[in-house]
Amino acid sequence: MRVGSRGRNLLFASGVIAALSLGACASRGPFVWVQSLPVVVEQPLPYVIAAGDSLDIRVYNEERLSSKGKVRLDGKISLPLLGEVHAAGKSPVQLAQEVQTQLTRFLQAPTVTVQVDDVHASSFTMMGEIARPGVYPLPPNTGLLQALALGGGLTQYADADGIFILRRTPAQRIRVTYQQLMENEPHAVGFKLTDGDVIVIE
After folding, report:
1. Terminal CA-CA length for the chain
2. C-alpha distances in angstroms, 183 versus 154, 159, 167, 187?
3. pTM
4. 18, 45, 77, 101: which is deepest, by most CB within 10 A?
5. How many other CB atoms sit within 10 Å of the CB of residue 65?
6. What is the pairing mode between strands 112-118 and 172-176?
7. Using one digit for the tens of pLDDT, what is the confidence trace for 100-140?
8. Distance of CA 118 to CAs 77, 83, 143, 170, 194, Å?
9. Those residues with Cβ within 8 angstroms of residue 148's Cβ, 6 or more apart along the chain or in another chain
C-alpha cells in the first residue's frame, strides 16, 4: 500500500469524525438507507484510471510525443505539446481518444494508445466499534461482511443498527444494519466498497 493512498484516506476519515460526533448527540444526521441504492450486478467494467497509476501513452510513429508517467494527486499527467491533461476518472480508451483529439491540432490523424503499467493501491478505512480499526487494502468486489470480518467483527459496545459507509464520489452517507447483513437482504449483501470508503460503526 502506498503511503500517499493511506494518508489521503486517514485525512478524509479524520475530517468526518467531528461531523459524525456532533450529529450522534442529537440524531444520526443525514443518511440514505442501503436499500434505496440499486443492487449492483457484478459484471466486468472498464478500468478507471486513478491518482497514483503509472501510464504508458504511445503516439504511433511519434516517439517524441509518447510519454510515461504517474497520475498525480490532482488527477493530471503531463504530456508533450499538450501540457496538463486530466486522466483520473477515465478509462484508458477514453483517455487515448481525448489525447488523440487534442493532438489533431498538431498532427494529421494521430493514433494514440494508453496502457496502465502499474495501478494505485485501493483501500478503505474502518473506525468506531470495530475490533481492529484501521486502513485496509481493498480487493475487487469486497462487500460489507468481508470488510467486517477483516476488522475482527463488531465490539460488544457496537450499535448493530448504526453501520455507516461514508463515500466521497458521489458524496453519500449510507446506513446499513447488521440484521440486514445477517438476513441476506439483497441491497446490503450486494453493496460493494469502493476506493476511499470509510466504514463507521457506532
Report:
1. 27
2. 17, 17, 24, 11
3. 0.57
4. 77
5. 20
6. unpaired
7. 999 999 999 999 999 999 877 888 999 999 999 999 998 87
8. 14, 22, 24, 25, 19
9. 126, 130, 154, 181, 199
